[in-house]
Amino acid sequence: MIRRRELLTGLAAFSGLITASCGWKLGDVRASSTIANGFDKLHLFTWSQYTDSNLLKTFTTQTGIKILADVYDANEVMLAKLQASGGGTYSLIYPSDYMVSKMVNKGLLKEIERKRLIGLDNLFPRFQNPEYDRKNSYSVPISWGTTGFIYNSEKITTPPQDWNYLWQNQQQLSKRITLLNDAREVIGGVLKMLGYSYNSQNESDIKQAYEKLQNLKPHIAAFSTDGWRNQIMSGDLILAMCYSSDAFQITRENPKLKYITPESGSSLWTDTIAIPITSSNLNGAYEWINFMLQPEVAASMSKRLGVATPNSAAFELLPPEIQNNPTLFPPEDILQKCERLAPVGEFEQVYERYWTKLTSG
Question: Is the pLDDT of residue 10 over 80?
Answer without folding.
Answer: no
